Amino acid sequence: MPPLDASQLPPSTLFFLLATVVKMLAIFTLYMVVVAYTTLAERKVSAWIQDRHGPNRVGPWGLLQVAADGLKNFMKEETMPGDVYKPLFILAPALAFCSAMIAWAVIPFGAPLPTPWGRIDLVVADLPIGFLYVLAITSLGVYGIVLAGWSSNNKYALLGGLRSSAQMISYEIAMGMSTVCVLLVAGNVSLNAIVAQQVATGWNVLILSIAAFIFLVAAFAETNRVPFDLPEAESELIAGYHAEYSGMKFSMFFIAEYANVLTASALFVSLFFGGWDIPFTRWDNAGPATVTKSLLTVAMFGFKTYSCVLFYIWIRWTLPRFRYDQLMSLGWKFMLPLALVYIVIVASAILGLDAAGVARTGWAFKGAMGSINLVLLILLFFVIDRGRLISPASSRIDRERVARIRRATDTRSTLGSGEAH
Question: What pLDDT is stored for residue 239 in this prediction?
């Protein structure tokens, strides 16, 4: 038996601690840079969609616009209204941002990296309960928004904070329920194990498409993005929960929004699109770890994640905002019941396949789950929904009643114009 290569063995305790510190610094630095340039990407994409020029004056192609905006926010005067509760007023922006950033600690972003001192897993903390950790930490973000609204001592900010808390808590339940199916298929709550399961059986989006759909919609609501950006509601509540903020504290809420988008995209990719797995090849999963594999898998993970971020941006400049009653109705009357029914169907299918002795890594399991997935997609979108439940423009009024209302309106208009003459 040939001797084991030291680069493939687990590292010593000292080197493990040093590598963890290096990963923390690298992830934090890269995370902040990507979040900052995501703001520029949104402005560029919106300009492209609206057929106009985006930021293009500061630096080549406007790439230094981010630095100019950051410097402007740091130099702006910080106002402190006299009636605010200062400790929580200052803490709220940081709390809204930190929950998104800390969640990255358990998201694997590449294949293991071999070093002369041992193998390093490309994840800051490979917790055995990684997915539960993400749900727990990201749910704390709502406290930053609620505390911002309450501590401002402003009725508009308070209403924005209460509206946001109701929205985020409502869709948090649907998001958690949608991921139960992923845990049932993987048989584990570790994100590394979920990625490994997708390597063996195929990406979950192919066999759990409805769960991916529910997760994506809930993620839009959780991050307060269009069409679920009700908490800001510029036309209704002035500026929402951050009405009393200025300077860098005001900017922190928008930085937190983009940080949440980035984290939600990374989690979506890890749960449904194979994480760092390179599609159509087994090379990145077989054999010993190499530096080339690590670099390419990190690049693939970044490509998948940022593609999802660009999808968020595209949706913002395409869809209108929901009404608040539509938002709550969609979450409680459609998304949550759908997630619960889907859990029962998927659990029953997996239990039946396991009882029949079908291996989860075989083609029989993939084919059975894929067939069930296809049938459920057809039933949901082409039989049950037909553009009426999910569409925000749907109306409960039948066509005949709408026609009667229009005729009555036309009659009143005709009579009014006759009296005027």
Answer: 66
For 382, residues 6+ apart whose C-beta sits below 8 A from its C-beta are none
Tokens 């401002």 -> residue: 152
Nearest one of 350, 391, 29 to 207, comparing CA atoms: 350
- Distance, in Å, from the CA atom of 400 to the CA atom of 380, rounded to the nearest integer, reads 27
pLDDT at 5: 60
List pLDDT tens digits, range 314-366.
998 888 877 778 888 888 888 999 999 999 999 999 999 989 988 887 888 88
Q: What is the DSSP letter of 104?
A: G
| Amino acid, res. 360 | R
Within 8 A by CB and 6+ apart from 319, the residues are: 226, 227, 392
Q: Please state the φ and ψ torsions of residue 348, each to the nearest 5 degrees.
A: -65, -40
Q: What whole-number distance in Å separates Cα of residue 175 and Cα of residue 113?
A: 32
Q: What's the residue count for the chain?
A: 421
CA distance linking residue 71 with residue 36, whole number of Å: 12
**CB neighbours (10 Å) of residue 372?**
17
Q: Distance (Å, rounded) from C-alpha 376 to C-alpha 361?
A: 22
Matching residue, tokens 């269009």: 226
State whether residue 61 is helix, strand or coil: helix
Under-50 pLDDT residues of the chain:
1-2, 391-393
